[in-house]
Amino acid sequence: MRSLEKFIINLKKEFDKCSIEGMDTASPIRKLLYLYCYYHYFYADKSKLVDVIQGDVFDCSSVDRIAGIYIDPDADANDVDAIIVDYVQDGEEFDFPMALKSMKDAETMLIKALSDQVSRKPIDTILADKEYKFSSKKPLKIRLITNYSPKNIGKKRSILNALQALKPEKEYITFHISFGYDIENEILEIEDPKEYVDSAIINIDSENNIVLFGEEKSLLVNISAKSLQELYEQYSYRGLFAQNLRYYVKNTKVDESIIDTIRTSPDLFWYLNNGIIIICDDYIIEGKDILLSNFSIINGGQTTKLIGEAEFKTDFYLQCKIIRNKHNDIGEKISFIYKVAEASNTQKPIKGKDLVSNRIEQRLLKRQLLDAGIYCQIKRGERVNRKLYPEPWQNTTNEELGQLLLSFTYQKPGSARSNKASICGNKERYDLIFGKRYNSDFLIDLIKLKAYYKFWISYTKKNDDGSDAFKIGLVNNGMLFTVAIIGAISKLYYHQEYIQSINSSGTSDERIEKISQHDIDHGFLSDELEKEDYFELFELCYLNFFRPAFEFLISFKGGYIVSNFTKVDSNYKTYVFRQVCAVFASGIPEYLKSSFNRYLADVSKDDIERDKVLLFKYVNIISSDFGPTPGLSKEVVSSIKKALIDYRTKIYKLRRIKMYEVFNNTVCDRISNYAPTNMDALQNLKCLDETQLNLYGKDIVVIVNKVLNE
To answer: What mean pLDDT is reported for the chain?
Structure first.
């Protein structure tokens, strides 16, 4: 397909700009693979070109024809996608029977590979990671992509019908195909997005069978299936589906039921299907035709897709709610669309990310970043507009930002890498990360670290001379560990009083708690940094902290797998942070001081004062140990703890909140062990944030004094 060639040429330019090799010598199959994956899985994020290449497993001599393996971030279970590429040269015919055979061959090989029976090394390497182990809980999609596009809708339907009839060996495996125009339209969603269809006509069963509702005169009608099919054929990728609901969740049983009704009992479809919801700015009724203006389907995407791609001769009808948007203000209009979409899509499987997307803190975060020139995806299906956000650091997601914050601010890079789902799925962790305000310059610097680190991976691989046996593995898997190291360095650089405090702390938990606080309220990277400066900063972290920590580990634990090292918080705390503490034991070392002065931002006294305000406002407690042991008896400690737990139970039930919102078990242990008898003593324990102190501090002091005086 000629139109794809221009996008491939543009992608090559992006590779060249980022100094990433791979496109110059790539075969047409690889180029099409990179193009599709760059847009489909990574939303044209330039910083993730390295990830595009890492999923490449293509071998022209291999019979399985699997070209790439990727995680689908929009799927409910982060499905594993195996990609087969069928590049049709000019003058050639698309061999669909061979394509079907390739998909079945790939299925057979992948099932065997999962049980270690037979495979190729690149595939073995990827499938060794538990994130890529497909199962009933983590489906496998085998997708064929091709530059070929059927010449007419009939040809497309015959191919899709044959694909539908292809039965997988396992119920969690499905087969898919993306034609040339599908790929092009997906690219256009990012390069030239359409938020709605400008205008189109739908047909209904009768001009006398219309129900009006509300002052704005919304409608309830019965839409012709053929009319809906025509909408799908013309506008499926060009605004027909509301932006926040463009992802399609395939459910084999539901799909087969809908298709069977279309083919065998179309007269029953109205009774068995919930229909669709369209939202529009306006409409005009002319007999059995309705002209819609500025409209999108916000519920019924699955139904629309299946009707759009099904083959049927007899027309039938389904329910259609047409909501006329009654808001003039753009903010109110968008909010109204979200509310309707959210309320009407309850049958879809929901990710933690989807559940939090409409929360006020997520909307505020999205707005804050937009004002700072960064697009943040907070819900599946949202796509960045590349024209508005062209730089690699101008594109992120709330989950990705959560990973960076969990690593830099809260010093948990292992959890950030291996348990990304907990960022939006675990309420306590979600509140730790997103229940706070962050400085915009600080967030921008975090995202820049991510963007330039990805480029550094490619640079390191390109310039590796083989002298460091661990470097490629550590760099490839160590982005979040490196972000955590830079976080620790920044905190010690701006708050040098931490160094003495860390040196006097008894346990590793006490030490790391000192720098696991939200305590930077300004940018931390110099505005003068160029790409090469970022690379030098990452190299500094690697040579002085990351590699020495790993070398210390393998000195007594030989054979440790590099990729596993960066998945565990205890490895960071025990080895990497230990190395940071050793380097900073006597203050900022002279041999690093000039580098830190160059890479880190110069801040004012006002900035540091704001940092201190944050330290009081928010608290992240890790260790129950704190300060000198006051010598309380075990009986008294136990009595205080019981009284505190009873109080917490009463409060969280009365206020209908989570237990940890009053205080968690670690806080309870710390207060019990050190028995603060006044508010100053309680505050000095640094285990309750400002809100908790104001709400519960006096009660806690009363409880402690009561137990001590008994």
So the answer is: 89
